[in-house]
């Protein structure tokens, strides 16, 4: 086995050391709830009668037997979201699969699944980040009946998978497997879609052309095909050993997709808590799995949203993961993939070129990934270097391609797109933030100029349309967008306008205590800034015309004026708290949420 890179070993050890007591508490809880007999046997007769009241007579007889595992299903199904619509018939499919393996299944509960693509620029987006923590709590409620020997998590998109992970980790005494449903087929090429969005922002095409392009892009059941948060989630579940190997990017409605779901059910049955070889989630998600997740994010140029989600997931598993950890890992993990918005190809093209199996094998061969981990499938990451296929209708695996089948999308460690990963910690006298630089050209990574300050993205859009922005280089500051201010909505509506300014030959950067979409791209964006404006961070003191320097190469952001005068300034007035569209129901979460660099969670 190739020796682990010393920086990866150092970061892993540092996380483990600072988290010693926290992880010990987590493991004590997992051990306390461990059981060698079916959990339902601990229920009173009346309790148990409620569990099986609606089951068939056959399932009732099965569930009464000690050796039969009962598998709980937590589903995020709804038929408005393309990624989750395929889950409609999964419970019945899973039930039929389980019976073949001597197991029973029950839908333990459902979790909400909202779409950031639908709520972009709308009030509902202010509920989005907190939906992750609601999903975690919904997962806990679903499994709280304590009637299951294993569980399957059905979820795909932005906050759903991180929420399911956080919730499931409260039941880490159980074996838990994540079951994806796959991406839709490729539609309108992403560069063409981006071009039409920019043309619409400039008033060069009408809404009819924009809608036509969007409908041609998002056109069928399955995950959106750009490499945003949803598909980054699926990569993470492979990297962290929570999927059946190779399950992430197989399209819905195919025989291979059904076979992979079948394999997940079989694995849950064979590794259930009351089986001969139980495989608890607590033993799968350790510090090495967390670090592998970060490495996967860096190597593939994944979503900046995971700078929020990974620390929150790590904390649920008893680990403290910092932006500094991610930055150190980024310095040694090469960028092996360019998938839109980092490149022209989508996840289907990435998968066809060699996909996650190729990435994992390349990282292992260079000592850039922990190979000695426990996964839901077995021991070690070697299983995840292979790709699934059907041979005469039977699911099997083969080695992923030795070489990338398309080097414009996927490369090996010998010739990466960049020697460093795509995520960087940014620090300076304005605060601490994160930036994704994998899609930002080198000539755009340093921006110095006056700032233009907005307290709402709609104010920027109005100034852009009215041609009231500076004609030279500038820094766009959008503040009061952090978790405490308004729930930290994505600011993706800024992207077309800022991109058009960049395309016109000027330099522009975004600085915000808010977050961007998982599709954030070519504009340098310094986001998740802490302390946020609502906490009295320096961003609240900025005024139009203040000179700022954003340097993504060095990882710095600085106010270049008189420091003493700046310190004496009063903070900008906080905007009125918005309500309506459910936002008033989340006021208590805004008051209790933690900072963005710790995951923006309400639990810790």
From TrEMBL:
Its EC number is 4.2.1.12. GO terms for biological process: D-gluconate metabolic process; Entner-Doudoroff pathway through 6-phosphogluconate. Binds 1 [4Fe-4S] cluster. It catalyses: 6-phospho-D-gluconate = 2-dehydro-3-deoxy-6-phospho-D-gluconate + H2O. One of its GO terms (cellular component) is cytosol. GO terms for molecular function: 4 iron, 4 sulfur cluster binding; metal ion binding; phosphogluconate dehydratase activity. Keywords: 4Fe-4S, Carbohydrate metabolism, Gluconate utilization, Iron, Iron-sulfur, Lyase, Metal-binding. Residues 409-599 form the Dihydroxy-acid/6-phosphogluconate dehydratase C-terminal domain. Pathway: Carbohydrate metabolism; Entner-Doudoroff pathway. [4Fe-4S] cluster binds at residues 157, 224. Residues 69-383 form the Dihydroxy-acid/6-phosphogluconate dehydratase N-terminal domain. Its cofactor is [4Fe-4S] cluster. InterPro entries: 6-phosphgluc_deHydtase, Dihydro-acid_dehy_C, DiOHA_6PGluconate_deHydtase_CS, ILV_EDD_C, ILV_EDD_N, IlvD/EDD_N. Belongs to the IlvD/Edd family. Catalyzes the dehydration of 6-phospho-D-gluconate to 2-dehydro-3-deoxy-6-phospho-D-gluconate. This is Phosphogluconate dehydratase. It comes from Asticcacaulis biprosthecium C19. The gene is edd.
């Amino acid at each position: 086995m190739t020796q682990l890179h010393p920086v990866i070993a150092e970061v892993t050890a540092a996380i483990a050391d600072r988290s010693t007591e926290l992880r010990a508490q987590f493991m004590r809880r997992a051990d306390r709830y461990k059981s060698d007999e079916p959990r339902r046997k601990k229920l009173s007769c009346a309790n148990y009668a409620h569990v099986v009241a609606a089951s068939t007579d056959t399932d009732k007889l099965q569930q009464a037997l000690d050796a039969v595992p009962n598998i709980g299903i937590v589903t995020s199904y709804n038929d408005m979201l393309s990624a989750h619509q395929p889950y409609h018939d999964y419970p019945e499919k899973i039930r039929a699969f389980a019976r073949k393996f001597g197991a029973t299944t029950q839908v333990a509960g459902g979790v909400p699944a909202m779409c950031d693509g639908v709520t972009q620029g709308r009030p509902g987006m202010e509920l989005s980040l907190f939906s992750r923590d609601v999903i975690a709590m919904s997962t806990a409620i679903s499994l709280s009946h304590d009637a299951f020997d294993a569980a399957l998590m059905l979820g795909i998109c932005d906050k759903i998978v991180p929420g399911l992970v956080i919730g499931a980790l409260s039941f880490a005494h159980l074996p838990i497997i994540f079951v994806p449903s796959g991406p839709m087929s490729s539609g309108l090429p992403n560069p063409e879609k981006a071009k039409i969005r920019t043309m619409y922002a400039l008033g060069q095409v009408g809404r009819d052309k924009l809608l036509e392009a969007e409908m041609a892009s998002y056109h069928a059941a399955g995950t959106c095909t750009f490499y945003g948060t949803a598909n980054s989630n699926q990569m993470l579940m492979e990297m962290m050993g929570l999927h059946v190997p190779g399950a992430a990017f197989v399209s819905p409605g195919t025989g291979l997709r059904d076979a992979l779901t079948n394999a997940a059910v079989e694995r849950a049955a064979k590794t259930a808590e009351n089986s001969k070889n139980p495989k608890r989630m607590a033993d799968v998600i350790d510090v090495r799995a967390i670090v592998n997740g970060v490495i996967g994010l860096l190597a593939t140029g994944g979503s900046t949203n995971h700078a929020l989600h990974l620390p929150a997931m790590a904390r649920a598993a008893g680990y403290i993961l910092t932006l500094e950890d991610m930055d150190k890992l980024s310095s040694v993990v090469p960028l092996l993939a360019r998938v839109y918005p980092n490149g022209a190809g989508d996840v289907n093209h990435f998968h066809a070129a060699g996909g996650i199996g190729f990435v994992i094998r390349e990282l292992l061969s260079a000592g850039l990934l922990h190979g000695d981990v426990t996964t839901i499938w077995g021991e070690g990451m070697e299983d995840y270097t292979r790709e699934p296929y059907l041979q005469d209708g039977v699911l099997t695996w083969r080695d992923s391609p030795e070489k990338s089948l398309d080097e414009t999308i996927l490369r090996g460690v010998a010739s990466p797109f960049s020697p460093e990963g795509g995520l960087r910690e940014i620090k300076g006298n304005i605060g601490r933030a994160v930036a994704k630089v994998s899609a930002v050209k080198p000539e755009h990574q340093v921006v110095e100029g006056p700032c233009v300050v907005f307290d709402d993205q709609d104010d920027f859009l109005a100034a852009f349309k009215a041609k009231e922005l500076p004609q030279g280089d500038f820094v766009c500051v959008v503040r009061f967008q952090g978790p405490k201010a308004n729930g930290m909505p994505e600011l993706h509506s800024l992207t077309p306008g800022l991109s058009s300014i960049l395309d016109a030959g000027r330099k522009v950067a975004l600085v915000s205590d808010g977050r961007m979409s998982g599709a954030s791209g070519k504009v340098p964006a310094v986001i998740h800034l802490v302390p946020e404006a609502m906490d009295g961070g320096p961003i609240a003191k900025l005024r139009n015309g203040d000179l700022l320097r954003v340097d993504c190469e060095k990882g710095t952001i600085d106010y270049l004026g008189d420091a003493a005068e700046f310190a004496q300034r009063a903070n900008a007035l906080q905007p009125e708290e918005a309500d309506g569209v459910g936002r008033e129901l989340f006021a208590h979460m805004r008051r209790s949420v933690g900072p963005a660099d710790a995951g923006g969670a309400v639990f810790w």
